[in-house]
Amino acid sequence: MRRALVFAICLNGALGSATLSAQSRLANAGERLRLEHLSVEQGLSQNTVQCVLQDRQGFMWFGTQDGLNQYDGYGFTIYRPDPQNPQSLSGTRIESLYEDRSGTLWVGTD
Fold first, then answer.
1. Tens of pLDDT along 56-86?
2. The whole model's pTM is what?
């Protein structure tokens, strides 16, 4: 079920050379390359993406200025602070994402 998925994200209008490098590695490995443009029209909470992480299960996580977005290849689930839930995010502006060795996702907010 795991498939190669590369996201080209344009931050401030510039496409990074890292995407081209990843494309070359995938093409050399004989895998099919699938590029998608994701924005608010596809369900992203906000177009300013601060950070991106692909977890060990293959989900893509996007930290924006308006919450944490989980993308499963089909749609988004958006996580924002919930005042009724002390376990929820502490802020809407997501600054950093990290997955540790045990698979726990750490989220840095402002």
1. 999 999 999 999 999 999 999 999 999 999 9
2. 0.70
Three-state SS string across the chain, please?
CCCCCEECCCECCECCHHHHHHHHHHHHCCCCCCEECCCHHHCCCCCCEEEEEECCCCCEEEEECCEEEEECCCCEEEECCCCCCCCCCCCCCEEEEEECCCCCEEEEEC
**Residues near 46 by beta carbon (within 8 Å), at least 6 away in sequence:** 40, 64, 65, 66, 67
